[in-house]
Amino acid sequence: MKMERRLKALSLASMLGMFLILVMGALVTKTESGRGCGDDWPLCNGKFVPAYTIESLIEYSHRFVVGVVGIILLATMILVFLYSKRKDAKWYVGGAMFFTLLQAVLGAMAVVWPQSSAILALHFGFSLMSFAFTLLLYLVFTRFGDAMYKGDGTRLTRGVRFSIWAVLVYSYVVVYLGAFVRHTEAMGGCIGWPLCNGQVIPEMTGPTSIAFIHRVGAAILGLALLTLFLFVRGQARSDSGIYRSVRLSLILVFLQILSGGFVTLAIGYDIYLLASLLHAVLVSCLFGILCYSAIASRHTRG
């Protein structure tokens, strides 16, 4: 029992740490601090403690947090493999470690060798996967763990279960498009919201096409989750974990869409950075909840 409490505490620390890494990574991108440490890694401008500049402070703080969270996650993984009997916990902590190392390597490569926007956009996606795995790991040691492992008696049709996984995969594509928008600095391609440059369908060239495709992708995701919720509501009990998670996903996706509009309208104002970070926070929560829904759906066979 004592060890289970330790595992729960460490998994919670890992999850919160990964969430912080996500937010700090978005901050690095939005403040254009990725080159704050020059071409050096793991040192910053050739020093262990870099000279104080805003860019170097943001970038080096991000690196430091990644290192600390990596150590916490390593300790969590060791204890999970030694003391936990849950196979799913071992898969989740292993997945979290894999994507944490992958994003660290990709981040180092981005510093030493210039990368394309398409590759840089993967960095946020890998961080998001790390967060999702640590979220699932933490939930294993809460009352939601049994629902993921054994189910709660809910019965869903094969089509609905497939749809949950399809929406999860599609949401990752939309997230990648959003990260690609950030790294190509295409957010300004669509001025105004909900219209793009005052048009329902703008001229599809350059940054405008990138920003507009992301908007359309987000709208489709919202409609897909609304449809999914209606099907789940017709098959699952209102007190079941799968129903509550899909309902929460629906709420989060519409908040995410509204926050995207907030980001667009905030361009050129001091509040733009805050709006962008809010956007990143909401999409992280949305993806994490969708992952829980997908895992829980495996034990809802009709």
Description:
The protein contains 9 helices and no strands. The two termini are 35 Å apart. It is mainly α. It is flat and about 50 Å long. 74% of the residues lie in helices and 0% in strands. It has 2 domains: 1-142, no CATH class; 151-302. Pathway: Porphyrin-containing compound metabolism. It holds the Pfam family COX15-CtaA.
Instruction: List low-pLDDT spans.
Output: none
Radius of gyration: 20 Å
Q: Please state the average pLDDT score.
A: 85
Estimate nothing, just give the exact number of structural domains. Answer: 2
Inertia-based shape: flat
- Note the main sheet: none
Distance between the termini: 35 Å
The helix content, as a percent range, equals over 70%
SS elements, strand count: 0
Strand content: under 5%
Give the ordered list of helices and strands. Answer: HHHHHHHHH
Which structural class do the helices and strands define?
Answer: mainly alpha
Number of helices: 9
Multimeric status of the protein: single chain
Summarize the structure.
This protein has 302 residues and is mainly α.
Key features?
74% helix; 9 helices; cell membrane; 302 residues; membrane; transmembrane helix; mainly alpha; flat
Helix-strand layout with pairing:
Elements: H1 2-30, H2 54-83, H3 87-112, H4 117-140, H5 145-149, H6 158-183, H7 206-235, H8 241-266, H9 272-297
Helix pairs in contact: 1-2, 1-4, 1-9, 2-3, 3-4, 4-6, 4-9, 6-7, 6-9, 7-8, 8-9
